[in-house]
TrEMBL record:
Gene3D superfamilies: NAD(P)-binding Rossmann-like Domain. It comes from Gordonia effusa NBRC 100432. InterPro entries: DAP_DH_C (IPR045760), NAD(P)-bd_dom_sf (IPR036291). Residues 145-350 form the 2,4-diaminopentanoate dehydrogenase C-terminal domain. SUPFAM superfamilies: NAD(P)-binding Rossmann-fold domains. This is 2,4-diaminopentanoate dehydrogenase C-terminal domain-containing protein. It holds the Pfam family DAP_DH_C.
Length: 359
């Protein structure tokens, strides 16, 4: 059965989601929502740079899209700086009886223990009342640090520590709000960016640590531990998103740690450079400009490095593609799931079924 899909937003992830929906044999794009009035009326194929029209015009009319009665919404709108408003949007979709796969807010990836119980219950209740399901995921938080490490632990005899790392050069990552306001790159070292306020790292990535703990049957110490190392720019330079003057913040390493009895057991760690020559003592990908590395210590010790690179762009472009495709390829499983909030622990195996070239 072909599922009818509305794509919600056409930014850095959404444009790739449109391409993914169009390429998927079991999905049909029937609507596109945009926030920019200049995009209203433009064809989805044009917005996704496909080089051809898809016969679906973008709109900012929510009710018109609801009236289409789609099977699902692929929601890829920016949520990092509007978390509560985004949750309101997702709840409205569920109450309208529309299933949703979304790239954010990331707190909903596995919100139990991360946000107040009434907020979780609001989402669950909306899904049950509308008979619809919501799944929030991406690559990080998401596949690279939930599905991948949990699959690896199926090979373990004893697990001492699970460490999920992102090691990346963000110099070509185009998200000015994220880079400047949230991470604080290019800002004075004595300022405190949004991400580094106490508890924010645990809010943003605590869902990863807590979902791994739930998948492994582990009860963590409270609260989660946050560790941060900031790096100053020795000279000024430019990235695609922000200017980084000398003396401002230029790189960041952080950890969100789940401990058991005071011992690190589940660790989410990021090494974020904004110039390839920064901190040569930090880990680097074995290949390319960025990777996700999963290291499991125990018996046996295991390590997997996951990299990606697009045909027509660097790892930051392909990062948007894999984020979109994890959502697009999960649509069928989410539509089939029980109403409510669906985490990675609830889903069956999601694959690229139907996408093999020539198949």
């Amino acid at each position: 059965m072909t599922l009818r899909i509305v794509e919600w937003s056409t930014g850095t992830v959404g444009r790739h989601a449109i391409a993914g929906i169009d390429a998927h044999p079991d999905l049909e794009l029937v609507g596109v929502w945009v926030s920019d009035p200049a995009k209203v009326g433009r064809d989805a194929g044009d917005l996704a740079d496909l080089g051809r029209e898809l016969g679906v015009a973008a709109t900012n009319d929510r009710e018109a899209l609801f009236a289409l009665k789609p099977d699902a919404i692929v929601h890829t709108a920016m949520t990092d700086d509007r978390i509560m408003e985004a949750i309101d949007d997702l709840v409205s979709f569920l109450e309208a009886g529309i299933n949703v796969v979304s790239s954010g807010p990331v707190v909903l990836q596995f919100p139990m223990g991360v946000i107040p119980d009434p907020m979780v219950e609001r989402v669950v209740t909306a899904g049950k009342s509308g008979g619809a399901s919501l799944h929030v995921n991406g690559i990080d938080p998401g596949f690279a640090n939930d599905v991948l490490p949990l699959a690896m632990t199926s090979l373990s005899q004893r697990i001492d520590e699970v460490r999920c790392q992102e090691i990346a050069d963000y110099s070509t990552y185009y998200q000015p709000v994220v880079m400047k306001q949230i991470f604080g790159f290019g800002q004075p070292m004595d300022s405190t960016p949004m991400l580094l306020n106490p508890g924010v790292l645990s809010l943003a990535w605590g869902s990863v640590v807590r979902q791994l703990a739930a998948g492994l049957g582990v009860t963590l110490d409270e609260p989660l531990v946050e560790r941060v190392e900031r790096v100053v720019a020795e000279q000024g330079y430019s990235t695609v998103s922000v200017e980084i003057p000398a003396g401002t913040m230029a790189a960041l390493r952080f950890e969100v740690v789940g401990q058991v009895g005071g011992v690190d057991r589940i660790v989410l760690e990021h090494y974020t450079r904004t110039h390839p020559d920064q901190r040569p003592d930090w880990p680097k990908p074995a290949k390319g400009d960025g990777c996700y590395r999963i290291a499991i210590t125990g018996e046996p010790a295991m390590e997997v490095e996951f990299t990606h690179h697009g045909e027509n762009g660097d790892h930051n472009v392909s990062g948007m593609i894999v984020t979109a495709q994890r959502l697009v390829n999960a649509v069928g499983a989410v539509v089939a799931a029980e109403p409510g909030l669906v985490t990675a622990l609830d889903l069956p195996l999601v694959s690229g079924r139907g996408l093999v070239s020539g198949g």
